[in-house]
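From the shared-data thread, chain only:
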Amino acid sequence: MTTGRTLIRGGLVITASDEIHADVLIEDGRIAALAASGTPAAEAFTAERTIDATGKYVIPGGVDAHTHMELPFGGTFASDTFETGTRAAAWGGTTTIVDFAVQSVGHSLREGLDAWHAKAEGNCAIDYGFHMIVSDVNQETLKEMDLLVEEGVTSFKQFMAYPGVFYSDDGQILRAMQRSAENGGLIMMHAENGIAIDVLVEQALARGETDPRYHGEVRKALLEAEATHRAIRLAQVAGAPLYVVHVSAMEAVAELARARDEGLPVFGETCPQYLFLSTDNLAEPDFEGSKYVCSTPLRPKEHQAKLWQGLRTNDLQVVSTDHCPFCFVGQKELGRGDFSKIPNGLPGVENRMDLLHQAVVDGHITRRRWIEIACATPARMFGMYPKKGTITPGADADVVIYDPHAEQVVSAETHHMNVDYSAYEGKRLTGRVETVLSRGELVITEREYTGHAGHGVYTPRSTCQYLN
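Structure, as tokens:
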């Protein structure tokens, strides 16, 4: 356990609402006090350990509200365990993840949740919570949703995609939404018309179109937009809030914007891959494009500007990673000759904070918006604020000392995710994590890993803090 006090001196403290040169006092794993640097109040701070943050940013640890550690998919498993994945997250300045426990068809929510607790417990370097994937809506499942909300699993993911695996039909979705309207839970939706997509997949393969780039062509932007619209209207009928995950298409952003303009409690998340990568990557030769197969798929470059715009106008509120890594060798290769057999997912939990800082450097977003979309809003959206996502007295001391001037080149050779490629290989970034504290304990110390498996604890969550 953390003993004594830690003082972070001289940095620029950035939260979603403020930027101030302040000293931060940490005691018993929490933020004890802040005072403007150089003032008598700050000078009076004393601590056993002092960290000099002069010339650096002092920011809240990142909250990645969408990860898939050890996820079973397409006959294999995501290559990051809770141990390797949370360690990599810490290297990237993320101090809390919310992962997805999976209900299998024919099984209870409780069985799925227990299985994920067993995977994570004692293995995490940082704190974690769970969402629940609901694959089998029935009367028992609906009752269990109430119980899970009471014990701090307050969000439920449904899929309009993947028929035969995770798919729910409109009736099942409506029932779950009605239940969440009553119990305060938040439905998270994978919005793609999976039934229609399966037809297009079958037709493409019959034409001999088997390369990875066809993954993007069959999962059409219009079918993401159509499903997004349908999810919004079903939620409206149910009187329930809705959070649409991994929004990739400008047409889907337009649906969210329209709903929000109508005053509906509808929220949207996008991911770094949609902001920085495109169908150009899916089309890379020699099956290299398989590295970029994820769903929703990468879109043509022109979609990126609309996603950035959505983040600036708050039609999109959160950037999460959907971190779900599969190695190129032996995993992505399962789909050679048939793009529909490529495991869907990209590695990214280590890259998110740095990529979004690059977006600040490039002028897409402000520094405070960076912290808002990566720390504060995900914490609020999923009931963890102000314990997580900000630097304020009483908050957990999840703090990152960030060097905004350091330069780095992203590479699989230097990353810490358990995967044999980087989706951002060779990309030059300005800004780098230097030191990370999780509940006051040093996890990364001046670019050295000083954390350990088992430090991270399960974090029950309250309901979405954007709803009355």
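The mean pLDDT is 97.
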